[in-house]
Amino acid sequence: MTSQVSSPAEQADAAVVGEQRKPGGAKDVRRLDRVIIRFAGDSGDGMQLTGDRFTSETASFGNDLSTLPNFPAEIRAPAGTLPGVSSFQLHFADHDILTPGDAPNVLVAMNPAALKANIGDLPRGAEIIVNTDEFTKRALQKVGYAASPLEDGSLDGYHLHPVPLTTLTVEALKEFDLSRKEAERSKNMFALGLLSWMYHRPTEGTEKFLSSKFARKPDIAAANIAAFRAGWNFGETTEDFAVSYEVAPATKAFPVGTYRNISGNLALAYGLVAASQQADLPLFLGSYPITPASDILHELSKHKNFGVRTFQAEDEIAGIGAALGAAFGGSLAVTTTSGPGVALKSETIGLAVSLELPLLVVDIQRGGPSTGLPTKTEQADLLQAMYGRNGEAPVPVVAPKTPADCFDAALDAARIALTYRTPVILLSDGYLANGSEPWRIPDLDELPDLRVRFATGPNHTLDDGTEVFWPYQRDPQTLARPWAIPGTPGLEHRIGGIEKQDGTGNISYDPANHDFMVRTRQAKIDGIDVPDIEVDDPDGARTLVLGWGSTYGPITAAVRRLRTAGEAVAQAHLRHLNPFPRNLGEVLERYDKVVIPEMNLGQLATLVRAKYLVDAHSYNQVNGMPFKAEQLAAALKEAIDD
C-alpha cells in the first residue's frame, strides 16, 4: 500500500524560508522555519547540560520547542561504547510544534560511538559536526569501525564538518592554570558556542548560568565561558561554516502571556505547590528516590517557604506510609515514584482506599518489567494503576499529555483527591518528565479553588437524641466521608485496613455491609465529575484516533500530516482514565474504526474493548522511545485505507 505521507527525510528537512547574503564577503544567513539538533557523546561529555543550555536560550528567544533527553541508566557508563552514549534532541521552530522531531537536521557527535549510535536516524543531507580528536584507532575499534567513517566515504551523503573540538578547547584555555584533562572538560561549551553562532542563539543567559554554576570555582567558570566564546568565534571565522541560520520567534504560536521553558517534572512540582496553596493546606511529600521521578523530590525540597515538607524515606513503603499519615493529619499528601515503586506501594494505596483519605500517587512511568529500562519511557503501568491492588480497590487515574500539561494535571488530581476523599494516581512518564516546552504562567485567578472543610463536630443524631460523630457519614453528592483532623475534640474514630461499618466506622465482618461498602466506594469513583472528551473532527471522518498521556504530541503531529495529505481523520485524547468521560461511549460509536496508539501492548485498548464492546485497533511500541510522527502517520494511513 502506498502512503501519501511524505518520507522521513522530506519531513525532517527544515524548510529554507529566506536567504540573506552579507556584503563584503561576510557569511550568508539563511532563514529556516524549524530545525532539529541532536547533541551526542559520552555520559561524561555534558550533553544534557549542553542541550539544556541551548534549549534555555532558544526559549528566551521566543521559539516554540520540544526536547528529548536520552541517556543511559548507569551513572557513568563505559566511555566510548555504544551503551554509554548520551544524547539530547531539540526541535525548535517559528510556529507551533508538538514533538522533538523524527530525524535531526544536525548531529553533533563527540566521538565515534556517538556517531555510530545516531547516524541511522539522520536523513541524507543532514549536517554532522564531529570531534575529530576522538576518532583514534582505539576508539574506532571499540565500536566496531574497521576504518574511520570520516575517511572511507560512508558519510558522503551528509554535510560533514570535521572539527578538532578537544584541541581547539585546550588551545583556547592555555592561559588558564588548568591541566589538559580539566581543559578538555570544557569542549561541550566550545560545541555549544559553535551551535549558538550557527543558529543565532542569545549568549548572555549561558554566560550568566556558568558564572552562577561555578561561583565557588571562578577559574572553572571563566574557563567554561572562554571555551563558549571560543566556539562562537570559531564559527564566525572558520571557512568550514559558510552559512549561519535564523529561526524566527514563534510569535503566532502562543496566546498572549508570560512564558518560560519547563520540563514535565518541574511543571508537576509547581502544580503540586499551586494545589496546596489553592487548598490552603500544607504540602507533604513522602518519597524514595527513583528514576525518573526524583526531580520532583529535589524541586519540592526547595520550597519550604510555601509550607512544603519533603521526607526522603528509607524505602518506597515508608514513603507512602508517611504520606498517608500526613493525609490523616490534614495535609495535601503526595508520594512520587515509578512503576517498580507503585508495586511496592500497592498495599498502602489499598489502605488509603479503605480509609478514604486524599492522597496523590505520582507514577512517572518507565520501561519495565522489574528494573527494566530506568531512563527510557513507556506507558505500561495503566493496568497496574487500575487494578494493581488486592480486593475491589478503585482509584481515579489522571494522565497529563504534554510537559506543560503536567501542571494542570497535578491540580486536577488534587481536586479529585480532596473533593472525593480518595487516593488518585497520576500517570506521567519519562518522555514528559524529562522533555520540555514553553509554558504560559497562569494568573492566580485562573487557578481552581481547592479549599476543603474539615469536620468540626458531631454529624449524626442517634435514636436517643445523642449527637455523635460518624466518620463514614457521606456527602450525598460526592459520597465523600468527612475529613476529621486527629486531636479535634469529639471526633475520635477508628482507622485501619479492616472493613468498616457504614456510618459508624466500627469494625464489621457483616457480609451485607461489606457488599454495600465495596459498591459505595466504586460508586464514589464512578460519580467523579470529569469533563466530556472533546473530539477534533473537522471533516466528518470515519476513523478516530484515541490516545492518552504523552502520545498526544506524536498523534497530533501525525493527524496534521494526514489532513495535509487530504485524509479525513478524527482525534480525541483522554486525560481521565478512571472514570472515563461520560460521553466516551457515544463518541466511540460514531466511528467505523477506532485506532489507539500506545507505548505498551494495548492496555487502554483492552479497557475500551471491555467496557464499550468496541473493536478498537491497537498500534503499539515498547522500544523505550516515543512514537515518531511519520511512523504514526503511515500506520494511521494504513488503518484508514484498510
SSE layout and pairings?
Layout lengths: L7 H5 L3 E5 L7 E5 L1 E9 L4 H15 L2 E7 L14 E9 L12 E4 L2 H7 L8 E5 L5 H6 L16 E5 L1 H8 L7 H5 L2 H12 L5 H10 L4 H20 L5 E5 L11 E5 H16 L3 E5 L6 H7 L7 E5 L3 H13 L3 E6 L1 H17 L3 E7 L16 H6 L9 E2 L6 H16 L2 E7 H5 L1 E5 L19 E2 L5 E2 L42 H16 L8 E2 L6 E6 L3 H13 L5 E5 L1 E3 L5 H6 L3 E6 L4 H10 L4 E4 L8 H13 L1
Parallel strand pairs: 2-9, 3-6, 6-7, 7-8, 11-12, 11-13, 13-14, 14-16, 15-16, 21-22, 21-24, 24-25
Antiparallel strand pairs: 1-2, 3-5, 4-5, 10-17, 15-23, 18-19, 20-22
The parts where pLDDT drops under 50 for at least 5 residues are 1-13
List the strand order in the largest sheet: 12-11-13-14-16-15-23
Q: Looking at the structure, what is the overall shape?
A: globular
Helix content: 25-40%
State the secondary-structure class. Answer: alpha/beta
Helix run count: 21
User: Strand share of the residues?
Assistant: 15-25%
Number of strands: 25
Distance between the termini: 9 Å
As a whole number of angstroms, the C-alpha radius of gyration is 27 Å
Give the mean pLDDT. Answer: 94
Largest sheet: 7 strands, mixed
How would you characterize the overall build of this protein?
It is built from 21 helices and 25 strands. 35% of the residues lie in helices and 20% in strands. The protein starts with 7 loop residues before the first helix and ends with a helix. The model is unreliable at 1-13 (pLDDT under 50). Helix 13 links the parallel strand 13 (332-337) and strand 14 (359-365). The strands form six sheets. Strands 12-11-13-14-16-15-23 form a seven-stranded mixed β-sheet, sandwiched between helices. It has a six-stranded mixed β-sheet with strand order 4-5-3-6-7-8, sandwiched between helices. The chain has a five-stranded mixed β-sheet with strand order 20-22-21-24-25, sandwiched between helices. The longest helix has 20 residues, at 218-237.
